[in-house]
Specification:
It holds the Pfam family AMP-binding_C. With 542 residues, the protein is of the alpha/beta class. 29% of the residues lie in helices and 25% in strands. Strands 2-1-11-10-12-13-14-15-16-20-19-18-17 form a 13-stranded mixed β-sheet, sandwiched between helices. A seven-stranded mixed β-sheet has the order 7-6-5-3-4-8-9, sandwiched between helices. Strands 23-24-25 form a three-stranded mixed β-sheet, sandwiched between helices. Helix 4 (100-110) crosses helix 5. Bound molecules: adenosine monophosphate (AMP).
């Protein structure tokens, strides 16, 4: 016997219609790339999202066709979130911090047909458009009078003229909730970047879960600042949860320095903010230097990299702000665990509570996790035994876009590439990473790319890239190099060799010349052994 409830597909268009109908006068505040502050309301987002949908229909863009963005967090980007996905197309948010070559590769792989970009990224678009023949429309996210006339970018229109003449009504289509809604490429895997392809269903379920009290605890009383970029896993799903709860949204644009973020937090009386540790480091540094205080901020979610204990302390002790440590992945939409205390922990002394807060947290309902040993057997939840962390749930990938990399699942579970313990209360703590990548300031650097470039130098016999702890960036890459017999290359020459081949911030901080790189029985480089050998090494930039 089936239940007799209405069978309505879970669609992203319902989020924006809800926000319009029930929170229409709720504010959206954006710092624009021009530097000024833009204000409007959820009803305006809905109206203009409908215009976006009409503009895409006008181009005869088909169901599931891809529309890409190269954009900061801002109101026009928000309109695209709802207009593109709501009308049945797939929003492809591209990370502008990647090298132009990687951006072109990603845009071609996704078969993007439209690219919407902030004017900050015009030079990037100028560098890639000739390599992206599939893109038939470029849309600059600006007013008509700011559109450059001699940019050299073909089929370029301003966003305002693109949507300006479009009707403000639109009948959102109904379709299978499992249809693709948005996509995000991750470099946190080996080989070429791979895309997680989210669905309407996974996005809505994640939006519900993210708003729960033990997750982000979002409500119509909150003023929310997503510092985490909308090009990185949909800003942790905040735009969707914001429409669902009707909270006020505050967008920082591209100004992520301590002063700009602090000013916005205070002016807009932000109660909840989310970002990677590096951004908060800049904010706390600015506040300390200038003796500043928060007047409204209550909670902040910090994730993407391990949150340093000193940061949790500084937020709690000096500012009375609760830090919620979070863990997730692009492949997980991204939220997996969040660290909040249980009732029985409330009576614990602060030092004991701190030990819990440092963990990455408990699984959110919808995410199941386990740790497994080398033999694939599940390991005990004792807080000491560590193993490979595997996850499953309705907002976790079952396959990458176009089947890249083959079947990623192991017995139905997604192996995260993180190594963790889980304690008897279900709190997970990351202890290491088994995947061969480095995360600097919340962004991935492929150690393989760095090694391949070094190996292309005529004087290099072997190269191994490892991440080193860094107080600001969490990790920075260095490359250990064995020179070819009788050949020479200096540190400076090798670092220069990286120029133009990868993004500047991905270039290793240092070159360490070694006699040999430790190898395992199968000839694989033993990075753990190399890291042990380099344990006394100090980064020049740290
Ligand atoms: P991304 O797909 O770029 O969001 O990166 C996901 C990866 O970032 C995870 O698999 C972890 O390796 C790392 N990560 C995310 N959050 C945390 C955290 N709170 N602590 C430690 N590592 C984290």
């Amino acid at each position: 016997m089936l239940g007799l409830m209405q069978n309505q597909p879970l669609l992203i268009s319902s989020l924006i219609e809800h926000a319009d109908r029930h929170h229409g006068d709720g504010e959206i505040v954006s710092r624009r790339v021009e530097g000024d502050i833009h204000r409007y309301r959820w009803s305006d987002v809905a109206r203009r999202a409908r215009q976006v949908a009409n503009a895409l229909d006008g181009m005869q863009l088909l169901f599931s066709d891809r529309v890409a963005t190269l954009a900061w967090n801002g109101y026009r980007h928000l309109e695209l979130y709802f207009g593109v996905s709501g009308s049945g197309r797939v929003l492809h948010t591209i990370n502008p911090r990647l090298h132009p070559e990687q951006i072109a590769w990603i845009a071609n792989h996704a078969e993007d047909q439209v690219l919407c970009f902030d004017m900050t990224f015009l030079p990037l678009v100028q560098a890639v458009h000739a390599r992206c023949p599939g893109i038939r429309q470029y849309v600059a996210l600006c007013d008509e009078d700011r559109l450059p006339r001699d940019s050299g970018v073909p089929n370029l229109v301003s966003y305002e003229s693109w949507i300006g003449g479009q009707p403000t009504t639109y009948a959102w289509p109904s379709f299978d909730e499992n249809s693709a809604s948005s996509m995000c490429y991750t470099s946190g895997t080996t080989g070429n970047p791979k895309a997680a392809l989210y669905s309407h269903r996974s996005t809505i379920l994640h939006a519900y879960a993210a708003a729960l009290p033990d997750v982000m605890s979002l409500s119509a009383r909150d003023s929310v600042l997503p510092v985490v970029p909308m090009f990185h896993v949909n800003a942790w799903g905040i735009p969707y949860s914001a429409a669902l709860t009707g909270c006020k949204l505050v967008f920082p644009g591209g100004a992520l320095d301590g002063k700009s973020v602090y000013d916005l937090v205070e002016q807009e009386q932000v109660t909840f903010a989310a970002g990677v540790p590096t951004v908060w480091q800049m904010l706390l540094g600015h506040m300390k230097q200038n003796g500043l205080r928060f007047t409204a901020l209550k909670r902040t979610v910090i994730g993407g990299s391990a949150c340093p204990p000193a940061m949790i302390d500084a937020f709690r002790e000096e500012h009375g702000v609760d830090v919620l440590h979070a863990w997730g992945m692009t492949e997980m939409s991204p939220l997996g665990t969040l660290c909040t205390l249980k009732n029985k922990h409330l009576a614990l002394p602060p030092a004991e509570q701190m030990k819990i807060r440092l963990k990455q947290g408990r699984a959110i309902f919808g995410v199941d996790m386990k740790i497994v040993g080398d033999d694939g057997q599940e390991l005990p939840w004792d807080g000491k035994t560590y193993g490979d962390l595997h996850v499953k749930g309705p907002w976790i990938v079952r396959e990458y876009f176009k089947g890249e990399g083959g079947d990623p699942l192991v017995n139905g579970w997604f192996p995260t590439g993180d190594v963790a313990t889980i304690d008897a209360d279900g709190y997970m703590q990351i202890t290491d990473r088994s995947k061969d990548v480095i995360k600097s300031g919340g962004e991935w650097i492929s150690s393989i790319d760095i090694e391949n470039i070094a190996m292309a130098h005529p004087a290099v016999q072997m190269a191994a890239c490892v991440g080193m702890r860094h107080p600001k960036w969490d990790e920075r890459p260095i490359v250990a190099v064995v020179k070819k017999p009788g050949m020479d290359v200096s540190r400076e020459e090798l670092l220069k060799f990286y120029e133009g081949k990868i993004a500047k911030w991905q270039v290793p901080d240092d070159v360490v010349f070694v006699e040999a790189i430790p190898l395992g029985a199968t000839g694989k480089m033993l990075k753990t052994r190399l890291r042990e050998q380099l344990k006394d090494y100090k980064l020049p930039s740290a």
